Amino acid sequence: MQTTVRLQREAFDTAAEAAALTRGRTDIGALVTFTGICRGAESSEPIAALTLEHYPGMAEAEITRHVEEAKSRWPLLGVTVIHRYGRIAPGENIVLVVTASSHREAAFAAAEFLMDYLKTQAPFWKQVESANGRSWVDAKDADDTAAARWGKTPGRDAAE
Amino acid sequence: MKLVYFAWVRERVGKAEEELVPPASVKTVAELMRWLGGRGEEYAYAFEQAKSIRAAIDKRHVRPDTAIAGAREIAFFPPMTGG
To answer: What is the pLDDT of residues A38-63, one digit of tens each?
Structure first.
């Protein structure tokens, strides 16, 4: 089972990452890729950029814990998670989740599970840069609700 | 122990990390936040909304009632907004 967890400043190539996960394999029947992209507006206010701060060491560890949890819940054949940090302009990618399995149910579910947990448990913080200056993005209740539907996970047990 | 701060907690405290030795009477994460809040104006501002601040000990999320004994690194930060 191929697992890649990477934090980086640079943009990533979604197609290349997806191809890397399936290359030379014939057991994978379903591949789901989710790409999070920087919007040009936040609450209908135009933005210049997002800056993502992260907790080095903990971010990798927390994502890896949730990838392990996803592997224990679904029959996955490969997972790639890439999360960027630093300054990101509208239209640029921020986060990539790729999940591979024999069938689509596991791939879809695991990708959604990983995104829900990245939003609420991975130590990243977004700051918006706009004409009004800089402001930190507030956490959304909807993201907590989305994460809660998966029940307890390693990070959540300790935090709540 | 090493204390590290992120996002607006870091901005309000005015530093990203520091080494501090809290008194022995400070036993939990919540007590540590209260103690830090009493260390000056910038700390009082950073920790005034203690309920909305999350903590991690040695890079794992913890609850406010978690004991800090034996911790090497304690982090304080706002609710996360990655993804």
So the answer is: 999 988 889 999 999 999 999 999 99
Cβ–Cβ below 8 Å for A123 and B62: no
CB-CB under 8 Å, A58 with B56: yes
**Closest CB from A83, A119, A121 relative to B61:** A121
Contact call for residues B83 and B13 (beta carbons, < 8 A): no
Reading across the β-sheet that carries B54-57, which strands appear in turn? B17-19, B2-5, B73-77, B54-57, B60-62
Segments in chain A below pLDDT 70 = 154-160
Q: Beta A133-136 vs A124-130: how paired, if at all?
A: antiparallel
Which residues from chain B sit within 8 angstroms of residue A127, using beta carbons? 7
B8 and A120 in contact by Cβ < 8 A?
Answer: no
Phi/psi at A79 (5° precision): -140, 135
ipTM associated with this complex: 0.95
pTM of the model: 0.92
